[in-house]
Please model this.
Amino acid sequence: MRALMFLVPLALTIYAFIDCLNTSEEDTKHLPKIAWVFIILLFWIVGPVVWLIAGKARHTAAGGVSGPSSWQRNRRQQWVAPDDNPDFLKSLKDDRKPEAEAEEEPGRRDGGTSPDDKTPPTS
Model:
């Protein structure tokens, strides 16, 4: 029983500490993140409870149920993969155009013919 009285507050402190470290700076309320870390570690039982109640901005969905997928989906503003980014795909097309033009020019300089040539080939 004595071990349980030590392990429960310790587990609560560890949970609150890790939760505080994983929370972004803009989601912390009332104090800077570093202040919350010191409060959690210095005030062993009260600090983690105060962090869980008042330290973090909680996000809820429209239905009232909150979960990681409901609010993280709205926060993500970056492209996940390059092939999902239309700007990246456009830049690839732009990069390939000069290469295609450079490959056509050596054939023209060597006397090769193309449909655009109006001069007859020389022998």
User: Anything to note?
Assistant: Helices lie at 2-22, 33-42, 46-55, 68-75, 86-109. The mean pLDDT is 75. The CA atoms of residues 44 and 74 lie 34 Å apart.
